[in-house]
Amino acid sequence: MKQKSLSRRNFLELVGVAGGSTAVYRTAMAMGLMQETGPVATLDLRHVGPAGKKIAVLGAGISGLTVAYELERAGYDVTIIEASHRIGGRNLTVRHGDRIDEMGQEQICHFDDDPELYFNAGPARIPGHHRRVLYYCKILEVPLVIKANVNRLAYTHDEEHFGGKPVRIGHYITDTRGFIAELLYKAVDKNSFEEPLSAADRERLLLFTQSYGDLDKNGRYQGSMRAGYKSGGFVTAQEYYENLGFKAILNSRFWEESNADLENPDWAEPLLEAAGGMDNIAKGFVRNIKSPILLNAQVQSIQLRQDAVDVEYNHNGERKKISADYCFNSIPAYLMPGIPNNLPEDYRKALFSLLQGWGVKIGLQMKERFWEREGIYGGITQTNQRIRQIWYPSNNIHGKKGVVLGAYDFFDPSGFFDRMAPQERIDYAARCGDKIHEGYSDYVEAGVSVVWRRMNHMMGCGAMWWSLDVRDQYYDLLQQPAGGRHYMIGDQISYHSSWMEGALARAEYALLDLDKRVRAESGESRKG
Amino acid sequence: MLSETTRLLFAVLLLVSAVAVAGDELPIPADEYVYCTVCHGVQLMGNPITKSPRLSGMESWYVENQLRAFKKGWRGEHENDVIGVDMRQTVANLTEEQIKDVAAFVAATRSAPPAETIDGDAENGKRLYSSCAACHGVRAEGNIALASPALTGLDDWYLVQQLRNFENGARGSQPGDTYGMQMRAAVVTLADDRAIHDVVKYISTLEE
User: Fold this and answer.
1) Chain A residues with beta carbon closer than 8 angstroms to that of B45
2) Three-class secondary structure assignment of A67-125
3) Residue A340: its chain B contacts at CB < 8 A?
4) Residue A310, Cβ density class (10 Å: 0-12 exposed, 13-18 middle, ≥19 buried)
5) What is the value of ipTM here, to two decimals?
6) Which residues in A lie closer than 8 A to residue B83 (C-beta atoms)?
7) What's the rounded Cα separation, in Å, for the pair B131 and A26?
8) At residue A408, what are phi and psi to the nearest 5 degrees?
9) Residue A481 to chain B, least CA–CA distance (Å)
10) CA of B78 to nearest chain A CA: how many angstroms apart?
């Protein structure tokens, strides 16, 4: 009984303070319930001296670059072997003239030659708790700017609800809260809780519901200014939106996916992006790395030996070999069955339980920034169409043109966009946009699509485990180096697949493990 | 004007750039065809996780036929052929010349024999195979005159999948695909999935 009243008391205290969730967060931190992400300090890797140790890094994506950056500073002799024609992996920003290396149907980006017209086809957002990404941006001097993610003036759109017309997200959320609050108010009013509330508790809860949902003095939701102005509000009297109706909201689908999305910590405002394109992070690493980065070098074999890892690769029409002390391998795990290797059987089994993830993004160059005329500056419109989302650029506000993210499909087992020719994808995305913005398709000047499942040397976006059980079975094994020398790296070996922070966290873990081994080794030799 | 010799040299160079093979060394694909090995693996050894079959050493004439079949939509168009759809998209833009280049590369590749991954009764399969042998050869070595490919060296899971495709019409039901239609007619000798597994089990005992 005591337990119960305590939790109720907690609840009332919580709703009684502004910024309640922050308070809970702080308390949880103080109690040690939540693990701090980061903190990031220098890794303090032991310097291995001029003789060095040889490192083969497979893949010049974010994880491979991080490993190279850290190890060359600790005196290691690093070579990066990259299969594709470019550095960055899925950290890909597309601009004028860029080649999209899709298997069998290459595209060239025909955006105007203007640095403001870019499209982040891979990572596009950095939240404040991705401490490692932010740390490297800072030390690599990669300028960051705020990126609007949630925009209450952007739309939620559902072809089958609200007459198929887009509804401002602020309007939708306000009405939803209003109705929820009204229900709660009525429940409090009837005192229909399991345990009776004290008069004071009741009073506070009623005040809370009124404030939370913007209810009138009788506890009824009649619509709210929080939904936005329909008209007026400056020199003429304001007119608010009519509320959408409880039933209509209940039947709509926006809340099914998006309620959580809007509050997921990885998308929690404010977010950041690298000014001028996310690939400036990869470029920041490259500026600070002296180790050779071989492009168009595809790995042909990985052989673990007692005292080395032999990696064979094709480069400039020749088959070459590097014998390294350690190998950091960011090749997508699902491609490893197609690469001859002698990794231990259980390790191979673990690797082969990772499957290709999905990810489709379409970038559209718009000849005018028509969304700004609708009061939309950055942020995302959500729709039930196959494009799922439209992202408005946060950069170059009031500029002449802009690149809109015209589709972001992150889960598509049917391969809907995969099987379209590039131009068909652009046309399709443009038509979807017409249902949300009048004349949308007329503004489209150029487009590119990046279907990660069809991208050369990738065949997927992030790796997914067959099931959570499989992950639990193999995760620990894949965190360890095979034979003490072969580290599988990348966001694929993390709980944050498809995030740069996942890649960095994994790289950090592997580097610290290596350091531990190298220190132990040298400790022994000192004793001897 | 290019002299005849220069032109010949040019043609040879093009061939060399498509497939660089020297003596016993493994062939290295030209940059523009490296993507074949991304899905199908190094030396086209196959990758069951991405569902890309082993193609190492496949007869070039058969590879050419199949690439054309994908281009024409004989393969990779049927809704049941999910993986074929990917393949079709990938090869849709190949020119006739590129098809020949790719086929030459495929034929030159070498890798270890595929692993056995399915269960089946090879004894029963041997009996069932007798009706396949007329076209595909007693040792499944293939017969170019009948446009029947060798069946050895293929992944067992892939053979099962393709036999099912012939059975359910994902393969061999497009007008114009004469050989495919013949094969679709022929699979009726395999009564059920058990029979498919048995015959494939037998084929995988045959040496490449």
Assistant:
1) 338, 340
2) HHHHHHHCCCEEEEECCCCCCECCCCEECCCCEECECCCCEECCCCCCCCCCEECCCCC
3) 42, 45, 111-112
4) middle
5) 0.87
6) none
7) 75
8) -145, 95
9) 22
10) 12
Using CA atoms, how far apart are residues B159 and B142, in angstroms rounded to an integer? 14
Q: Which positions in chain B touch A419 (Cβ < 8 Å)?
A: 85-86, 88-89
pTM: 0.89
By DSSP bridging, strand A326-329 and strand A486-488 are: parallel
Beta bridge partners of A469: none
As beta bridge partners, residue A482 has A486
B41: chain A residues, CB-CB within 8 Å: 335, 337-339
Type and span of the H or E element at B182: helix B178-186
Q: Which residue of B has its CA nearest to A316?
A: B31
**Backbone phi and psi for residue B166, each to the nearest 5 degrees, phi listed first:** -65, -40
Strand-by-strand arrangement of the A309-315 sheet:
A298-304, A309-315, A318-324
β-strands A354-356, A463-465: how paired?
Answer: antiparallel
Q: Angle at the Cα of B120 (from B114 to B126), degrees rounded to 5?
A: 90
Among partner residues B37, B49, B90, which is closest to A355 by beta-carbon distance? B49
Q: Please list the pLDDT of chain A residue by residue as tens digits (528 residues).
A: 333 333 433 433 333 333 333 333 343 344 443 344 545 567 889 999 777 899 999 999 999 999 999 999 999 999 999 999 999 999 999 999 999 999 999 999 999 999 999 999 999 999 999 999 999 999 999 999 999 999 999 999 999 999 999 999 999 999 999 999 999 999 887 777 667 788 898 899 999 999 999 999 999 999 999 999 889 989 999 888 999 999 999 888 877 766 666 778 898 889 999 999 999 999 999 999 999 999 999 999 999 999 999 999 999 999 999 999 999 999 999 999 999 999 999 999 999 999 999 899 999 999 999 999 999 999 999 999 999 999 999 999 999 999 999 999 988 888 899 989 999 999 999 999 999 999 999 999 999 999 999 999 999 998 888 888 898 999 999 999 999 999 999 999 999 999 999 999 999 999 999 999 999 988 744 333
**If you write DSSP's letter for every residue of A433-497 in order, what string do you get?**
HHTTSTTHHHHEEEEEEEEGGGBTTTSSSSEEES-HHHHHHHHHHHHSPBTTTEEE-SGGGSSST
Please tell me the distance from the alpha carbon of residue B69 to that of residue B55, in angstroms, as a whole number: 16
CB contact B26 to A (< 8 Å): yes
Mark yes or no for CB contact A418/B86 under 8 Å. yes
Q: A456–B91: do the CB atoms touch at under 8 Å?
A: no
Decide the pairing of beta strands A229-231 and A239-240: antiparallel
- Six token digits for residue A381: 């419109």
Please name the residue ranges forming H helices in A216-305. 246-251, 254-263, 279-287
- The owner of tokens 């608010």 is A240
* Facing residue for A104 by CB, picked from B31, B48, B90: B90
SS3 B112: coil
**Which of these, A286, A278, A290, A297, lies nearest to A58 by C-alpha position?**
A297
Q: With a CB-CB cutoff of 8 Å, which residues 137-166 of chain A face chain B?
A: none
Task: Using a CB–CB cutoff of 8 Å, tell me whether B37 touches chain A.
Answer: yes
Tens digit of each residue's pLDDT (9 = 90 or more) over B93-121:
999 999 999 999 999 999 999 999 999 99
- Under DSSP, the state recorded for A390 is E
